[in-house]
Structures are given as C-alpha cells and as structure tokens.
Specification:
The protein is α+β, with helices and mostly antiparallel strands and 325 residues long. α5 packs antiparallel against α6. It is globular, with a radius of gyration of 26 Å.
Amino acid sequence: MMSRKLIDDTQTIEGSVISQNFKISNYGYGKDSVKVLHVERNGLVHSIKEFEVGTKLKLTSQKDYLQGDNSDIVATDSQKNTVYLLAQKHGLKSPEEFGILLCRHFLTKYSHVNEVSIHIDEYPWSRMSFGKGPYQDQHNHAFVFTPTASRYCDVNQKRGDTQPTVISGLSDLRVLKTTQSAFVNFVNDEYRTLPDQHDRLFSTVIRSTWQYSTVDGVDFDYCWNKVKHCILNTFAGETEKGIFSPSVQNTLYLAEKLALESIPEISSIDMTMPNKHYFNFDFSKFPKLVNGAELKQENVFLPVDKPSGIIYAQLDRKSPVKSKL
C-alpha cells in the first residue's frame, strides 16, 4: 500500500501519478546507426559518400514520459526516413553540412522540437587508382575502403540559436616512427624503473575533436583534411630527417597549435595520444643463438598495447568563445 507521505508528495494528471520530489533533468530520443550511401553520377564519373547517422530530438514537453501521451512524438522511423529523403534531395557533401541540414529541418518542420543533436560517421571510401608514380589513373566508378582514420562530427542546435554548434573529429589514426623520439629527464624517484630513452620508437593512435566558431562559408572537407595533415606533419616532419619529439606531450601541443594557426574558423581543439609501446626484446637469454655483433643495432621489438600511457590536452584560442568539446 502507498504510504501517506508518498501520496502527499505526488499529484495525478490524467490518471498518471507524478512525483513532486523528482524531475527529469535530461531527456530525448532518436534513431541510431542510420546507414545511407549516396551516388553522384556525372556522366561516366561517379562519386560516393557513405554516412552512418544518429538523430536525437528533445521536445518542449515531457508528457510522453510523464503521462504516456505520444501525440508530440516524431517517430524514430520518421527520423530515419528523413535522413534518406534529405539525402536524395540535397545529396551528401560533408558530414557537417548534412548535420546542419538535419538540424534545420527538424527545428523548422516541428515547432515543438526544442533541440536537435546529430552524430555522423563517414565511411572512408577512396577512388581506386592504377599505374605508377604521377601517371596513376583514377577509376571512374570503383572504390576501395581505406580506413587510415575515421571521420565523424556532432552537430547540435537549440531553438533560438543563431547557428548550430559543430564539432568535427577524427579517430583511429595510428602512426609510428622508428627514430627521432626520446623521453628523458623525467622524475627520478624510488618508484621509477624506466630508464632514459634517447632514441625510441614512437607510436600512438590519435583521436582529436575540434569546434568551429562559425559555420558560414566553411569548407569542412578542407578543414578536416588540413587538421589531419597538421597532425601527421608535426608527428613525422620532412621526409628525409623527420622532426624530433622530446615527448608525446610536446608533439601533441605542437599539432594542436599548428591546426589553430592554419584554420582560423576553429576555436578549440582537443587531442588524445595513448602510447603504443614497442619494447626491446631481451636477447641476453639466448647467448648461444645470438652473438654480440648481431645486437649492435636493435631490429626486433615486442609490441605491447596494454598497459599504456595516455596523454591528452585541449588548446583554446584566448577569446571569449566557450568550448563545448
């Protein structure tokens, strides 16, 4: 039986009991993992874009939760169909542009939608190329999946916002260099066993997100590729001698700094670089099988993914722009 105190703390609305002691602080619903492929045909030359889209809507009322009243719900099936209809009508250019288009559509079409959140992953298709050197021929309609890095974006817009918040990102960018990296002069206390490393392998899997201060006239494809180039250039350097890295922290900071210097539309950038260790294999246990001359240069390493160090930082412009990374 319901206690007297609980009865006093509740009210009834159309047969539903609603507690006055609680409130829904966050809510919403949507459709995840909507896969869509768009083919653009320009004569014999075709281009493709494949996205995986997630839509989230927040309504002005909570009566669907509190009262079981579904009259304001834009069904998740309708959200899914909207993705296909807008892709057919407008095509797929960049994930950011399609996310902005979806936000604008839901806020314009449904006056009781208060906020829209869109997440989009782009699948990394590239046009097949044949031949060697500068004489490679690109195929008109055949593509290969090339997941060097994964591209994604998050677009959010509330009713009344002058423009959406757009955050782009990349993940799974795994890189390695065999020299021009060191890690020395760190804290030397009773817990330390790691020696100074004056020349080591440096490998990491990079994840980065960045926020735009404006979306007007932004070439999102160019910006995404430029951030990726900034990261790779800071990590590797020029082709012959490379660039020296005294620590993961310094390489991360320089990559973020270069991205902000190169793309004025970006207000803030976040980056994570976990260590992917490659340790020297201990051949001293096999003196009869490996002689000293063979060990003058270390060529064999043991990959160890776990445990690993994790290094991260966010770099903002010194301006009143608030980061939402």
